[in-house]
Amino acid sequence: MACQQSRYHSFSSASRLQPRPSGVTIDESFLTEDKSTQNRKLLQKRRTLPYREIFEFFIEDFKTYKPLLSSIKNAYEGMLAHQREKIRALEPLKAKLVTVNEDCNERILAMRAEEKYEISLLKKEKMNLLKLIDKKNEEKISLQSEVTKLRKNLAEEYLHYLSERDARKILIADLNELRYQREDMSLAQSPGIWGEDPVKLTLALTMTRQDLTRTQMELNTMKANFGDVVPRRDFEMQEKTNKHLQEQEIQRTSTPRPDWTKCKDVVAGGPDRWQMLAEGKNSDQLVDVLLEEIGSGLLREKDFFPGLGYGEAIPAFLRFDGLVENKKPSKKDVVNLLKDAWKERLAEEQKETFPDFFFNFLEHRFGPSDAMAWAYTIFENIKIFHSNEVMSQFYAVLMGKRSENVYVTQKEIVAQLLKEMTNADSQNEGLLTMEQFNTVLKSTFPLKTEEQIQELMEAGGWHLSSSNADLLNYRSLFMEDEEGQSEPFVQKLWEQYMDEKDEYLRQLKQELGIELHEEVTLPKLRGGLMTIDPSLDKQTVNTYMSQAFQLPESEMPEEGDEKEEAVVEILQTALERLQVIDIRRVGPREPEPAS
Fold it and tell me: Is the pTM of this model over 0.70?
């Protein structure tokens, strides 16, 4: 160890004492030269060259360490050579990478330019289409104005021609009068016939005409006074002739029946659709079907509806001036929209009136800008389609012809009946026997007669000739088609409900014993209701009275109060108001005592 330290000391002393070899100069300014001014490869080579020369000087100067230093130099030289080879091999890849990079940049720039050009073209096309739409809208409004103007001109021309026709008739009458006067004058001036003074003859003719008029009036008076006085034989003959003519008239008006098959060629959809529409309908219902077809065709042709204004008689949801667009929805779309409105109405308690709710529903569904157009469109559709249950019931409630609770009660009755049938179906197979079906109907509707129960069973698909072993798929009785039409069973329930309401009010009128135009007092109407339906509770009676006399229930006089007699209403008005609400029998009527 001491030998190595002395050797190191002598090496360091010798290196400090020996001067720098001549010819070996290091350009230190070159070592700090700015890299950006030289080529990178040449710069690296030149920067390592002084160190190489110095290292070789050390190898030659230090003989003792020459093998070690030579090995170090050779190792570094080999490594540098290997790195140069790798760099030389990667040079083409670098050049290719640069080329690919430039190519990709060019393609990206080209694609951006192309997209920018396409965007500019699409923007121009959009502007052109918007201008075209504006132009078409202007043309449409202009054509509509022209149609309105032409209709006005047509009406004016029609009035003008009517006036011309009347004037022509008057002129013809004047010409005839002049011709008669000329004939009278020529007759008076004919010397071969009269030979008298024309003035005297004219005066005589005037007096004769006056006498003729007076005689005609007397004749008419005689006919009026003694027209019924005829001989017995003539009377019987005329009576026989009249009877014969009446029989002919009855035969002419009663037969033949209208040939409804002629409609199949004019109704849209052809014979198949007409057969579907006419199935099970009488002549009166077929007339409604034809009116609906005609109305729907006219409705599809309309592009706009004229606003009805802001009058007090106009419903709130239709108060508008100007033209309103016809949205032209399909019948199925209208039905689905009305069903959604009912769902929202029944989902929570609504404090607003039904018309206000309807318009608010349309605003929420279609926005304030289109709500009025949809209000007119829906109103015109439900006003036409009387045969569609959803539309007709919605129209009746919307126009105040029927209360909301009628619709709600009917739905609850149907739901309760389905629940009772489901409870009777112990196997949950969706099937009931005839006996089970009959039992459920009687338990659910204890006030219905046997005839009504039989009607419901026949509407459900069973007849008197059916076997008790047959099974009924009761769930199918409560299904609806895509236009909201119920099955015949549910329709029969609704018909019986309306018939029962009419019979209830007829019994009420009969019990009151007064004419429709006479006044009825509050206690008398209450007494009539309690007589025909003794099971009515006080709350239900007050509800009926409040509707009949249009008084809030809180302001209704108590029974026996002196103010009761002061509350009067026309019977017909009271019955019409009761027809609007859900009024029906609560219990059986007590039988009258035997005389």
Answer: no
